[in-house]
Amino acid sequence: MPSSTSKYQYIDCDPDLCIGCQICEYVCSYTKTGEYNTYRSRIRTVRVDEVLITALACRTCENAPCVLACPQDALDQDPDTGIIVINAQKCDACAWCVEACDFGAISVNPLTKLVEICDQCEDQEDGPQCVKWCPKEALKLTTPEKQAQKARRDALKSIKDEILPKIPLKETTC
Amino acid sequence: MFGYSGKILHIDLTERKTWVENKPEEWYKLWIGGVSMASRLCWENIKPGCDPYSPDNPVCIANGIFAGTPVPVGGKYGLASKSPMTGFIGDSLSGSWFTIALKRAGWDAVVIHGASESWVDIFIDDDRIEFRDATKLLGLGTFETEEAIREALNDDQVRSATIGPSGENMVRFANVTNDGRQAGRTGHGAVWGSKKLKAVSVRGTHGIKVADPKALNELSIHIVKEAQGPHTSKYRILGTSTNMLNMNKLGLLPTRNYSEGVFEGVETISGEYLHEHNKVKTIACAQCPIACEQMSMVKTGPWAGAMTGIEYECLFANGSNLGVDDINTVIKLISVADSSGMDAISMGITISWAMETFEKGIFTKEDFKCEKYPEGFELRFGDGEAAVTTAEMIRDKEGIGKLLSDGTRIASSTIDAERGTETYKWAMHSKGLEPAGYEARGLKTFSLGSAVGTRGPCHNRTAAYDPDIQGQVDRFSVDETRGELAKDSEEYAAVYDTLPLCKFIRRCFTGKADRAGAWPTIVNLINATTGWDLQYEDIDPIGERAHTIKKAFNIREGWKRSDDTLPYRWMNEPMTKGPSAGHFTSNEELEYMKDCYYEAKGWTKEGMIPKSKLIELGMPDVAEEIGV
């Protein structure tokens, strides 16, 4: 299993907010290839029934299984950002990394015969384009720690209405 | 060419062969895409006068300019055939992944000819076309069929347009469904059923190139952001179901087979109630930043688990119109229609006709014998269980479901001929199509728009209720302005249906939805995509041309002035309750408004199109055939 730490950022999708519009895929494929083709997107929406929808991109796992799986040593993980770097000289599109990835976040480009992985738009001044375009703000650049903080806050908020009425109000004198 | 591949795919089901047609760029400039291109292809490829169920009736699928680009709400396609409901043009729109896959496979349009001897599904794998045996798919619902095909082809990027059991059984108002969205109203599913065509699936792997991607991206992201603001809040939060309470307030909510315009039980079937009690999630068509589909589920009772997207039109037709005030029953009814692939509006209104016929003593319990109720059952207004059973009988063509599966026009004329009755007086249809959820007796401009509709009375092809409801005109009387208003409204809608763009985006360009507010952005979107140099004044003719080819199609199929009419009830019975009480559209009023309308369109008094008009719109071949 991949072991994520709070070290690296990744692009996360909130399935409650995702509407399945695929705008992230258009923007990603355009940014990376100059044309609109969801098959070339490094973030992919997935829908398994009428209402279960989310988008997935590289989660920047620590000790990334894709890096470990590559028989050509073509993949490296940037120690500062966690982003997977592909050595075009070495990659032969064998797709072992694709199989190793638990999130389906790696794809093979049939034209270039290279694997493609989200790089969080390192080359774009205004950061990840999918995050910028997402109409519902379902996508964000986050870390596991930030996600955990949000989960804790949401959990407490969800029982707020139940708890608040039970807290006795203090008498105040002034 | 940018924005188009220049290639149209022809598929012959009889001979199992395919060929490619290349059209010149000038042709694309005239017909653009969507319902306009689909209707034009139908004009070119049909054998005039053919039976809608014959192999001579083609299935014409046309993408839009913007499919597969980031242009918001541009992922829609047009579908046209001769309609088995009306005998005139059947043109529908649907949205989402299917059209985008088709565009990426390199096809601007697909025309399917002939009919297959055995059940078939077509797989368009970029430029490779495969005829597949569809026997294993028979009986599957619409979404199930899509999933089964994806599983069989082992590719979750394959997108399909399918028919469900209703289409297989040729329920006359069956739909074609893709990605949970319906190409509805005019019976495309029955046409596909007549061809033994279960599905068209596509895998498209090519990228889409546009003329000026930088400009297109800038325009698009602006619209994406605007679409999160107040201009779309109605659609995003409650969806169109919010109309239930509004229409009821105006006395325009069709109730108990359009006998009244107010419903006492509206609160518990309102959009607000639905949102509070049944909403599961809001979802979008592909390429749409708005997301209006309110996925709603029955959580308790006998129909627990039934889930589908709920919109106003389905809600009124299977709620107030049936006298049903239980939201769970309404969701169940709509899910029966959606999963089996039939038009929930026509289904609801056909059931309401049957309910009134029962209540008037013409139908009896005997008429409703079925496997579930061997002794028959009573079909009265407000009886949800009876309505659901009837819907299932229509789907399966069981017992009286066979008669009802032909819609109100054929069902009422059959009963009247058999039993010497006058059920046509409450058969709610015009040109054979059941109307939309607006009581036109209290909306005079809309009653004109409904009467002259090329596919029958429809809320998508005309919004002529706007001037009525917004108080631009007196909604209870007629005057000479109504012809121009009806023309303006249907041609405005035709521009959106041709590009196509979903009309819910119309206020997001500049905050104003009128031509001055929308056309400048639309011009820029078209030019950035195609590299053309269209101007503001080129947009209106796109809508007029799209509407005109559909009208020309109808004329060739034998349309005459008397076909532009309204249901008997709307022209003879005043409403008795609510703010619209006392009103109806008399024959004199309608004929006067039709005169004004034909004049505004530049047509003859008989509603025929002069040769000069057709030549002006760039269709000399049509002028030759039907021009006067």
From TrEMBL, chain A:
GO MF terms, alphabetically ordered: 4 iron, 4 sulfur cluster binding; metal ion binding
Gene3D superfamilies, per the entry: 3.30.70.20
Keyword Cell membrane tagged: no
Annotated SUPFAM superfamilies: 4Fe-4S ferredoxins
Matches recorded under InterPro entries: 4Fe4S_Fe-S-bd, ET_IronSulfur_Cluster-Binding
Keywords assigned by UniProt, alphabetized: 4Fe-4S, Iron, Iron-sulfur, Metal-binding
Residues annotated as domain 4Fe-4S ferredoxin-type: 9-39, 49-80, 82-111
Domain of life: Bacteria
Protein name: Fe-S-cluster-containing hydrogenase component 2
Source organism (scientific name): Pelolinea submarina
TrEMBL record, chain B:
Lineage of producing organism: Bacteria, Bacillati, Chloroflexota, Anaerolineae, Anaerolineales
UniProt record similarity statement: Belongs to the AOR/FOR family.
InterPro entries assigned: Ald_Fedxn_OxRdtase_dom2 (IPR013984), Ald_Fedxn_OxRdtase_dom3 (IPR013985), Ald_Fedxn_OxRdtase_N (IPR013983), Ald_Fedxn_OxRdtase_N_sf (IPR036503), OxRdtase_Ald_Fedxn_C (IPR001203), Tungsten_al_ferr_oxy-like_C (IPR036021), W-dependent_AOR (IPR051919)
SMART domains per record: AFOR_N (SM00790)
Pfam families, per the entry: AFOR_C, AFOR_N
Cofactor(s) required, per the database record: [4Fe-4S] cluster; tungstopterin
Aldehyde ferredoxin oxidoreductase N-terminal domain sequence ranges: 4-206
SUPFAM superfamilies per the UniProt record, alphabetical: Aldehyde ferredoxin oxidoreductase, C-terminal domains (SSF48310), Aldehyde ferredoxin oxidoreductase, N-terminal domain (SSF56228)
GO molecular function: 4 iron, 4 sulfur cluster binding; electron transfer activity; metal ion binding; oxidoreductase activity, acting on the aldehyde or oxo group of donors, iron-sulfur protein as acceptor
Native organism: Pelolinea submarina
Domain of life according to the entry: Bacteria
Keyword field: 4Fe-4S, Iron, Iron-sulfur, Metal-binding, Oxidoreductase
Name of the featured protein: Aldehyde:ferredoxin oxidoreductase
